[in-house]
Amino acid sequence: MTLSYLLKRVFHALIVLVMVGIITFFVVRLAPGGPSLLADPKLSAVERQAIEERLGLSDPLPIQFAKWAGQTARGNLGNSFLYGAPTVDIIMTRLPNTLILAGTSLLLTLVVALPLGLASGMSPGSAFDRITSTVSLVFVAVPVFWFGLLLIILFAVTWRLLPAGGMNTAGQEGNLGDLLRHLILPAVVLSAASIAEILRYTRSSTRTVSTQDYVRTARAKGVGQWALRYRHILRNAAIPILTAVGLQLPRLIGGAAITETIFGWPGMGRLSVEAALGRDYPLIMGITLFVALAVVTFNLLIDLLYPWLDPRVRAEG
After folding, report:
1. Residues 58-70: tens digit of each pLDDT
2. CA neighbor of 106 nearest in space, from 309, 253, 305
3. Could you tell me the membrane topology recorded for this protein (predicted)?
């Protein structure tokens, strides 16, 4: 890996973060309406104006953007309108919960999707291939909220095997077993569509690689099935799979709003819904930037893996 390749990827990541910040700021501020605390009909015009001046909303939009950009560059995302506390502090209280849910969902996605996709891609047209392809297509199409409610009805209401929501049972805070029981349903719901998509990418990439001459040569030399699958096929099929995994990260971190709301999981997805409903500008911006930073960082790491997986990328860099 050359230094120019690394610097180029880092520069692209910084450009993405800047563009996300600019677009989000103007989209949020130009949307009709204002913060929910200004919607109180009991407020007089003088009180409303005083609140707007205190929050910096009475300044022209370019000046608001300049102030926000300067504060953000110093690591200050402002105070939340709804909670009256620093935006960074509020996000950091919810971030670990989202990371637990997203990390579990990503692990579940990889553990399930990669072996199934690899096996399906190496036996195209078989009964196993047809079954996995059909099931994955169903899970891509199923709405998240419907699937979540279905699991709650089955596992929490009908069979009473798992809790319907929350992160802990009252009085059980810090109990790892209780946390895992609450984690199962939201993790399954959040990872279902990702498993289906990664499975289909893995199947397609595996089928393409399996037809290459070096795979046929390895088979002719009597290479074992495990080595053939994981050393020769999966590694050479990994680049499109890694790209697909990178595309799933926004769904797992920022796109968990529906899942966290259904299951009452106190993470950033649920917090983003609260911020949007309350028109909490600093909190919306802070969450967006945190999610964008996580996505960009994860995809940067994936980009840095490309040269290790494929020498051709290393030569181009």
Report:
1. 899 999 999 999 9
2. 253
3. Multi-pass membrane protein
CA proximity to 266, closest of 149, 127, 151, 167: 167
List the one residue out of 292, 290, 282 whose CA is nearest residue 67: 282
So what's the pLDDT on residue 90?
A: 96
Which residues have C-beta within 8 Å of that of residue 101, sequence separation ≥ 6? 183, 186, 187, 190, 256, 259, 260, 265, 267
Give the residue among 263, 282, 283, 142 at the shortest CA–CA distance from 273: 283
- Residue 256 token pair: 């968990």
Task: Tell me the C-alpha to C-alpha distance, in Å, between residue 163 and each of 5, 56, 145, 184, 268.
Answer: 48, 44, 17, 9, 21
Residue among 214, 268, 271 at smallest CA distance from 237:
214
DSSP string for residues in 214-280: HHHHHHHTT--HHHIIIIIIHHHTHHHHHHHHHHHHHHHHTS-HHHHHHHT--SHHHHHHHHHHTT-
DSSP lists the bridge partners of residue 188 as none
Percent of the chain with pLDDT over 70: 96
Domain containing residue 8: CATH number: 1.10.3720.10
Q: Name the residue range of residue 210's domain.
A: 3-316
pLDDT at position 212 over 90: no
Gap between the Cα atoms of 47 and 44, Å rounded: 5
Q: What average pLDDT score do residues 186-206 get?
A: 94
What's the structural domain count of the chain? 1
